[in-house]
User: Fold this.
Amino acid sequence: MAEYAVEVVNLTKKFGDFTAVDGVTFRIRQGQIFGFLGPNGAGKTTTIRMLLGLLRPTSGQATVLGYDIVRQAEEIRRHIGYMSQRFSLYQDLTVSENLDFYGRTYGVRGKRLEERKRFVIEMAGLQGRERELTRNLSGGWKQRLALGAAILHEPEMLFLDEPTAGVDPISRRAFWDLLYELAERGTTIFVTTHYMDEAEHCQDLAFIHRGRIIAQGSPEEIKATRMRGQVLEIDCSQPDVAIAVLRGLGLFDEVALYGALIHVVAEGIERQKPLIAQALTEAGVEVRSMEIVPPSLEDVFISNVQA
Assistant:
């Protein structure tokens, strides 16, 4: 078996004068969960569509499971599963009927289809819902059903395009538990997301911004090597006032809200702590704590986007 499930070299896609994907290069190891991280419009979906053979690249080359994305697109589609952010389910069919439809589409029939349906329904926790119309399912259950439909034919690799967009946090966590199970069984998973917390679950990552990859590696490697400056985390009263004051100083690379806390990023920020404390106190903001913390993936992403 080859070491890499996907190999991409200088892949580019232009639409007229607009470059949607600009010379991206990356590799995905067999059995790995690979995260493709970036904001909406960054080029994530365009990249996936090229890897699936649905869009012809303007230049560059790539292979998926050893098949060339231009010359062997049909072979690729036989060996992979794909789940879009809209889930692509038939709302007027039941859970069981959707699985029947997708099974037959993938060439799974008879006894094998029944066996795979049982596996999918158990894996996704859909027991007792087989006869329920898909339109009546919650977003989380539709998400699990769509994943089940994508793996009915036991693909070697899964492509998941923003699979948790619009789904509640509890369902998102349950979905990732399913992905871990599949990866442990040897399935290679390529997942696009704009949720930074989900990126932490991936074994390897690529950050894409305006069509270009701006950082890649494991989450730990990226945080250790790609952060520009240090992160000062501030716990204070009136964080909205505090952010305005700190941005008004014009001394920092980034000032952003993280939950109820504030992250301030700059080189040598330890030296700025007295000035920050004074400015906030004079503005009537109570500072409860200030400490240097390891950067989050979001800190690193913002740092690289601004570079």
